[in-house]
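tool=predict chain=A
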Amino acid sequence: MHTTPSVTLVPGTSIEIVRPLPRPTSVRMALLDFDGTLSLIRAGWQEVMADRMVADLLALETGESAEALRAEMMDMIDRTTGQPTAQQMDAFRQAVIGRGGTPPTTEACMERYRADLARVIDGRRRALASGEAPAERYLLPGARDLLEGLRTRGVAMFLASGTDHEQVVLEADLLGLTGYFTLGISGAVPPPGVFTKDLLVERLVREKIYRGDQILGIGDGPVEIAAVARVGGVTVGVASDEQRPGRLNADKRERLIAAGAHVIVPDLEEHKSLLSYLFDQGA
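tool=predict ok
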């Protein structure tokens, strides 16, 4: 596996220690992201989203290059990974308005994105549903074993995603993951409903369902990492390269560290060492 030079690693692994853990940890529940953290069904979604945005911005004929526009949109998408898709579409709309254009509505933007993405992922979902493709083909390495390890340790789990709720539920089922999430599965919902990972974590602490230090956050986006870090929880940043599982995505790594990750991993293959470090050793 790829590792970044001059970092502190759990001995014999590629697990990077960024910040010291509480000792001992008192984790009782885990909040997990879905796409890029557990699932690879939607691998490449960022590029699909950016392609349409760049095409629309180029049509405004502002004189900006396609490369510059793509860099701007990819930066926005990367920073907002984990937030509801509607927020990314709102950010795109503001980019259009700021250039003097008139963008489609947020819902229209989302419908176009769903259609574009469906052309990429529908075949993957059909292959899973028919049994042609094993679930492991579209799971991040070690994902199922990590969930098994958390369940064995008595950690209750909640799956939270910025992807549309019904899609998360469907894809978790296709991958055989639904049973692990005894606390529930939530994705983005249309107005007037509101679901964000920040609101979920805040509610858990405010209503004294869990203390902040009892929450473990695992994800590849800065949103879930920052939400759990703010309440004093333990955070694992999954700097996954979704196109080449097992390799470290350096850009993701930097964003996850900035968001407050205690630990960085390229995937979940070293789940035994990761769980041992989180629950048995501390720092």
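The chain has a mean pLDDT of 93. Strands lie at 16-17, 29-32, 156-164, 184-188, 215-219, 234-238, 263-265.
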